[in-house]
Amino acid sequence: MADGFPDYDVLSKRGSPSWNVQTRSVIDERLAMREAVEALDPVALDTLRALVAHVTPEPEGRPPTNTVALLLRKIADNDSDGYRPPGVPQTQAAWLLALSGLEAEARSRFDLSFAKLSGEQIDMLLSGMRDGRTVGGGWGGTDPSQIWAWRVLPDIVSAHWAHPSTWSAMGFGGPASPRGYVRLGAGRRDPWEAEEKGDAADAR
């Protein structure tokens, strides 16, 4: 991912009017979160780490995110989004099924654990999961495409892009409370927001 905001650090706003006490508290807790490794067995944990690294690579030249930690907390707490379609298990069960299913797919197709697969092989398995084309038999009668669309992909993406490191990489100022955003139209920027630089800005 090209970084159009190389000099921008959203955490520099920590003491500004952009963030209030509640915002600072939420972000501090998020940054300090550690991996609840007890939520998964070692094989599932390795699968999760490989999956996250493939779907959401770390932003170049930025501090690493803690996407895996955020996901493990959600799995451990069985944290719900408040809705799910029929046939998709609750969060923890869905993730356990997804990780065991992907491991079974890797073993069936390549005779390797998921964590040992190449990027191309992972792409093949994830495409199969997305389209419901699986051969590993580790899905317990649940449609893997539903788990991909309603649990795996949105959980990974939302966890990854909830971290200040990725906010900085895309020039996002974070939750502007109490300041708020004023210039909401396309291509408009509040004076205190980051200004895009380099090739990414020139291409717009």
Explain the overall architecture.
The protein starts with 20 loop residues before the first helix and ends with a helix. The protein contains eight helices and no strands. By secondary structure, the chain is mostly helical. The longest helix is centred in the middle third of the chain and has 20 residues, at 91-110. Helix 3 (67-77) crosses helix 4 (91-110), helix 3 (67-77) packs across helix 6 and helix 5 crosses helix 6 (144-160).
Oligomer: single chain
Using the CA coordinates, give the radius of gyration. 19 Å
Q: Please state the structural category.
A: mainly alpha
Tally of DSSP β-strands = 0
Q: Approximately what portion of the residues adopt beta-strand conformation?
A: under 5%
Helix content: 40-55%
The average pLDDT value, as a whole number, equals 90
Note poorly predicted spans.
Answer: 199-204
Largest sheet: none
Helix and strand succession? HHHHHHHH
Overall outline: elongated
Report how far the terminal alpha carbons are from each other: 16 Å
Can you count the helices? 8
Keywords for this entry:
single chain; mainly alpha; 8 helices; elongated
